[in-house]
Amino acid sequence: MLRLSYASRENMTPLIMDPKLTYNNKFGTFRHSDMIGKEYGTKMPSHNGRGFMYLLHPTPELWTHVVPHRTQILYIADISFITTYLDLKPGSIILESGTGSGSFSHSLARTIAPNGHLYTFEYHEERAKAAKQDFERHGLSDLITVECRDVYKEGFGITDLVHAVFLDLPAPWDAIASAKAAFKQKRIGKICCFSPCIEQVQRACASLNEHGFVEIKMFECLIRNQEVHTIPIYTVKDAVSKIKVQQDKKRKRNEEEASNSKAAKSPRIKQDPPNLYVSKTPTEAKGHTSYLTFATFLPVLDDEVEIIDKVNELD
Amino acid sequence: MSLEQSDSPVDSQNFDKIDSHNESFEQDEHTDTLRIMDNQYVFIVLPSGNIKVVKLQKDTTVSLGKFGTFHTNDIIGKPFGHSYEIYDRDKIKVIRNVAFYEVDLDDSGANNQETIDDPSKQKLSYQDIEQLKKDGMEGQDIIKKVIESHSSFDKKTEYSKAKYIKRKESKFSRVFTPVRPTLYSVWEYFFAKNPSKIRDMRIDTLSQMLTLSNARAYAKLLVVDDTQGLLITGVMERLGGYGIVLGIHDGEYHNYDIVRYMNFSKKVNDSLMVLSWQQIFKEECQAPFNYQDESKLSQKDLKFYLRKKANYEKVQEARKILWKGGFDGLLVASQYQPESILDTLVPYLAGSRPIIIYHINREVLVNTCVHMRISGKFLNPQITESWLRQYQHGHIENDMVFVCIFKISKAVMYANFG
């Protein structure tokens, strides 16, 4: 059973519960046997009672925070926007390539459960194995099929099956023909190509257009954090008092030097400025991840219908 | 006591808004085809780019103003994705939808150095065009004629040619595209129409709320939605009919207007429960329902009585579910002060569950964040802002250039309840 331990935002770890094990971190020693049976959200003291941590309910979003980075992963901004744009929900059938570290795969599985399915392809054998293990450990094997495959050479081997395709590949244009065949052919579908470089986007767009995809659009989504602080707000009056205090101090020092004795203490001016709650953007922020290129797959038309090719008419 | 329908007109209106469904429009999202169906909402995208929303009824016609009319029976049953051109006033033919004109690398040597902005270059006058229309010339042919009559069309770069064609198309062609309502297309429509009604919520922010709240099948979620139901719609879709969405709404009756445009199945609609801010408090005693002997009521009275009884029992059930607690998350997009909402609803959340509060004004959330920190009951309160840029395909000589169209930002807050 998976739980997440939370000591601070930067210090979170996934733990699989096992009564024989103990978890150690800089805040102390924590026995699994003490954790089992506790409610999510419990503040758990360490074995000697001096440190503590929180036991968190696992979610794909927390998993994205803690997943071992075997490749560059997808973060919330992209995950959430793609999920909406590809129209994903319980029952959706998706094709993903490559699997990478499985960050997005976990999120997808959560969204399409209980009756959807994710077919995910990974070129690198070790990574494919590691991802498969994660999915099994997290009880997602029914929802996810992992295949180790060179999709550029061999394609996906899937036809007439999926509602949506997500390509996170260096050369998505080489996979688009095979992706096109994977869609349920009689139904509108959506595709997303995830590419860090503009040149990749250009080629992907050209390929999508060539293969008859429409509504080709490109987006970029970023999330900026806001730091919240409480700051005291001083007025000009306070500034004047401050100078007077400094001058007082100087005068006292001079008097003491002159008379060789301690002068009387001047009354301390109490400063009690009001507090203001403020926010600011941190100086360092997460930058560009990738461009998201979306397009729509059009269903194959019934034969009886007459089609007019708009583009050719204009030549 | 008079039992006129007019006794509670808003009541029955709301009942229809969410609960009505017609067997004929029950469509499984995940079938092999997605077809345009009778008695369902559909967006019609016009050549001008404007979008018209229509509840399609068979055996009727839909007017698209100057672009013409069409018979609903001609598109009902067709799959989504294709466009149609109107000819002969109300007949239609299918047109292949093209993304953008794939403009070849420009070998023609054309650039805009020699183009002079001179209206006399277009030889066809407005009257000439009107005459062509009267003579029965169709949209695509008119556009061809307009291009032919432009004396320096050839001198334009390929890119500006495509732009010119697109402009003329939006004026003369009679092509429309039926678009299926999805969370994205529904958001797009309402955001363009009246963004303040949805509290200026952008789709990237809405998406983040849905993902961060872990909205999924079998979840039990509390939602405070003052965006006409946009947020609730997203949550309902992610639950897919499994689990419960409990919406706490402003006013005596909910205003989740947007939900119906999604053409949700009965299963999905049934996952929604609603309570007003007044109804959630135990001390606010509801007038107990006056149960009557149903066998003694007339046909007409019985129908009305049963509806009122169903409404009353729904409210009681929703209250029971709320007070039982253990909800999986709280989502808020409301005019009301978040701290007061938290104080009221957080007791009903299970441990370590996400709380996502949206507000267009950062300052409101800054106060909430401080409140959360002081209370000690919340882990990791964080304020985030989302930026979304859409890029447009463009052309500068031989290089493709992407030009940023717009930048938007939103404020969202995320916290974990410890």
Automatic annotation (TrEMBL), chain A:
Name the source organism: Gigaspora margarita
| InterPro entries, sorted | SAM-dependent_MTases_sf, TRM61_C, tRNA_MeTrfase_Gcd14
At the top of the EC hierarchy, this enzyme's class is transferase
Task: Identify the taxonomic lineage of the organism of origin.
Answer: Eukaryota, Fungi, Fungi incertae sedis, Mucoromycota, Glomeromycotina
Give the record's keywords alphabetically.
Methyltransferase, Nucleus, S-adenosyl-L-methionine, Transferase, tRNA processing
Give any Pfam family that matches. GCD14
Q: Where is this region: Disordered?
A: 245-282
What family classification does the UniProt entry report for this protein?
Belongs to the class I-like SAM-binding methyltransferase superfamily. TRM61 family.
Q: Which locations, inside or outside the cell, does it occupy?
A: Nucleus
Q: What is its main location?
A: nucleus
Give the EC number: 2.1.1.220
Q: Where is the composition biased (Basic and acidic residues)?
A: 245-256
Q: Which SUPFAM superfamilies match?
A: S-adenosyl-L-methionine-dependent methyltransferases
PROSITE patterns from the UniProt entry: SAM_TRM61
Spell out the reaction equation it catalyses.
adenosine(58) in tRNA + S-adenosyl-L-methionine = N(1)-methyladenosine(58) in tRNA + S-adenosyl-L-homocysteine + H(+)
The tRNA (adenine(58)-N(1))-methyltransferase catalytic subunit TRM61 C-terminal domain extends over 51-296
| Main function | Catalytic subunit of tRNA (adenine-N(1)-)-methyltransferase, which catalyzes the formation of N(1)-methyladenine at position 58 (m1A58) in initiator methionyl-tRNA.
- This one is known as tRNA (adenine(58)-N(1))-methyltransferase catalytic subunit TRM61
| PANTHER family in UniProt | TRNA (ADENINE(58)-N(1))-METHYLTRANSFERASE, TRNA (ADENINE(58)-N(1))-METHYLTRANSFERASE CATALYTIC SUBUNIT TRMT61A
UniProtKB/TrEMBL annotation, chain B:
Where are the annotated segments for Disordered?
1-31
Taxonomically, which superkingdom? Eukaryota
InterPro entries for the chain = TRM6
Output the GO biological process annotations, alphabetical, semicolon-separated.
tRNA methylation
Cellular localization per UniProt: Nucleus
Stretches of Polar residues bias are at 1-13
What's the protein name?
tRNA (adenine(58)-N(1))-methyltransferase non-catalytic subunit TRM6
